[in-house]
Amino acid sequence: MSQNRGRKKKAHTSLEIPVTPMLDMAFQLLTFFILTYHPMPSEVQFVMNLMPAAPATDINAQQPEAAEANPDLPASLKTLETTLRAGEGGSLGRIILGENEIQGGLDALKRELDANLTDPTLPFEQTLLKVDPELKYDALMKVIDVFSKAFSDAKKEPKVAFAELSAEEKAAQ
């Protein structure tokens, strides 16, 4: 008994953690993230085979005067160069298909593409889009949609390559 007299009994204290404020904070955070979440807009996928940024030969070179395009030409020689220049506020300003400026916007571009892609004497099977860096993304996507539709209407696989307009090309407006 003498051993128990010198020892002090420790009081058993229980530690209580308040759970209610933690749950309140968790639900406030959850509510904040749900209310401020904005999902990205839907993006459409399309098949696109990219080519080099420039054709393998000079597009302005004289073509042989054959009645039909040579089917044995490599794909890099069948490139239709298209220049897209930005207008006011980054909208689509001018479209130059090959050496011809297209007047009338995307509908006129579609008609011209249909004529070029269905003509058996023209060897075009792909295009090189030279894009003004100030052109907005949505305007570029509308042009790509026109090209994709024109290639599919001509029963050809859409082949589109991109290049940024150089400072010299941009100054030559």
Describe the protein in words.
This protein is an alpha/beta fold. The chain has a domain at 75-171: Nucleotidyltransferase, domain 5. Helices cover 34% and strands 16% of the residues. It is built from 5 helices and 5 strands. The chain has helices at residues 2-6, 19-36, 105-118, 137-153, 167-171; strands at 79-86, 92-97, 100-102, 126-131, 160-164. It has a 5-stranded mixed beta sheet with strand order 3-2-1-4-5, with helices on one face. β4, α4 (137-153) and β5 form a beta-alpha-beta unit. α3 (105-118) packs parallel to α4.
List the helices and strands and how they pair.
Elements: H1 2-6, H2 19-36, E1 79-86, E2 92-97, E3 100-102, H3 105-118, E4 126-131, H4 137-153, E5 160-164, H5 167-171
Helix pairs in contact: 3-4
Order of helices and strands: HHEEEHEHEH
The level of helicity is 25-40%
Kindly name the structural category: alpha/beta
- The coarse overall form would be rod-shaped
In the CATH classification, which architecture of the domain at 75-171 applies?
Answer: 2-Layer Sandwich
What is the CATH topology of the domain at 75-171? Nucleotidyltransferase, domain 5
Main traits of this protein?
five-stranded mixed β-sheet, single chain, alpha/beta, Nucleotidyltransferase, domain 5, 16% strand, 5 strands, 173 residues, 5 helices
Give me a quick take on this structure:
This protein has 173 residues and is α/β, with parallel strands linked by helices. Helix content is 34%, strand content 16%.
